[in-house]
């Protein structure tokens, strides 16, 4: 299975020279480190561009009538989870911004891939408007092969050993309506509210609205048990949460249309000096007379 990562290639470096601030573009340090050590980094859903990401939807009938009861019910749950009123901490902000929709999960970190190469919207949205790169990985389908070949950072290994963290990957499903926990009878006092159905955490993580279908997304997530002794609240530093992949999984790097040659050449030097075999390099280009972008050998 081939998976693609559209990422930024550059960042701005600031230095003070003779009392003046100078700025210049350099190869993104995270990308550089990722290539040098064959790492892929996990992110917290709170950093995603959709505020409803990885949120357990809770619905009631006659919301217009029982909206106040619904909010009181959600806040009673939140008081048990966070134990403090709404404020500006990153965790509380993440939780309360989705209160009308449901409750964000706090047990997962995610790495996002696309299943399509040369996706023009992905280039624009995630690869710095074509100043970035697209990394192509060829990964095994069977989880057993992942188990045998990947290595986990110390932070993830700690949670796996002590708090039963696990991982799994899957394609994202796009639907007009996300599955939800539905209150059986919202006319009852809230202390008597019960849900009429069960809910799978996968529905929060691997189901997205139809408008995101263009991404053709595949996700790899690490998960703590729901209701366990540990959580991964918004605001945690995720820089130490990564997986180390076999270098042979990286098959191709395509440079964005607007990425200058000097940066492309520097990335090639990084790859060639980091133990990879047979990585091919390509460059995005416009097609004469057509409303599309293709790639060609670099």
What brief labels describe this structure?
26% helix; elongated; 18 strands; alpha+beta; 298 residues; three-stranded antiparallel sheet; five-stranded mixed sheet; 8 helices; single chain
Low-confidence stretches: none
Portion in strands:
25-35%
Global structural class: alpha+beta
How would you write the strand order of the largest sheet?
1-8-16-17-18
Q: Kindly state the mean pLDDT as a whole number?
A: 91
Largest sheet properties: 5 strands, mixed
Let me know the number of strands.
18
End-to-end separation in angstroms reads: 24 Å
- Percent of residues in helical segments? 25-40%
Task: Categorize the overall geometry.
Answer: elongated
Q: What's the number of helices?
A: 8
Helix-strand topology string: EEEHEEHHEEHEHEHEEEHEEEEHEE
Using the CA coordinates, give the radius of gyration.
22 Å
What's the short story on this structure?
The chain is α+β, with helices and mostly antiparallel strands and 298 residues long. The protein is 26% helix and 31% strand.
Structure notes:
With 298 residues, the protein is of the alpha+beta class. The strands form six sheets. Strands 1-8-16-17-18 form a five-stranded mixed sheet, with helices on one face. A three-stranded antiparallel sheet has the order 4-15-9. The protein is built from eight helices and 18 strands. Helix 8 (261-272) links the parallel strand 16 (250-255) and strand 17. The mean pLDDT is 91.
């Amino acid at each position: 299975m081939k998976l693609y990562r559209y990422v930024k290639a550059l960042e701005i470096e600031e230095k003070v020279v003779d009392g003046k601030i100078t700025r210049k573009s350099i190869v993104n340090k995270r990308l550089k480190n990722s290539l040098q050590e064959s790492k892929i980094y996990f992110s917290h859903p709170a950093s995603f561009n959709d505020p409803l990401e990885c949120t357990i939807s809770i619905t009631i009938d006659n919301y217009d009538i029982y909206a106040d009861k619904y909010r009181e019910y959600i806040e009673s749950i939140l008081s048990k989870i966070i134990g403090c009123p709404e404020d500006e901490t990153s965790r509380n902000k993440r939780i309360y911004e989705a209160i009308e929709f449901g409750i964000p999960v706090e047990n997962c970190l995610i790495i996002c891939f696309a299943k399509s190469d040369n996706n023009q919207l992905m280039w624009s949205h995630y690869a710095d408007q074509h100043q970035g790169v697209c990394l192509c990985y060829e990964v095994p389908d069977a989880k057993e092969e992942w188990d045998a070949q990947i290595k986990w950072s110390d932070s993830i290994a700690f949670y796996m050993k002590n708090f039963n963290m696990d991982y799994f990957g899957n394609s994202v499903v796009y639907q007009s309506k996300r599955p939800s926990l539905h209150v059986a009878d919202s006319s009852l006092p809230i202390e008597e509210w019960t849900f009429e159905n069960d809910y799978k955490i996968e529905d929060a993580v691997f189901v997205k609205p139809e408008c995101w279908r263009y991404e053709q997304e595949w996700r790899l997530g690490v998960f703590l048990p729901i209701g366990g002794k540990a959580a991964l609240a918004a605001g945690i530093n995720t820089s130490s949460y990564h997986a180390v992949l076999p270098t042979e999984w990286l098959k191709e790097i395509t440079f964005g249309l607007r990425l200058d040659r000097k940066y492309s050449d520097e990335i090639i030097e990084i790859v060639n000096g980091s133990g990879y075999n047979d990585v091919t390099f390509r460059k995005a280009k416009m097609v004469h007379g057509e409303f599309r972008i293709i790639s060609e050998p670099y």
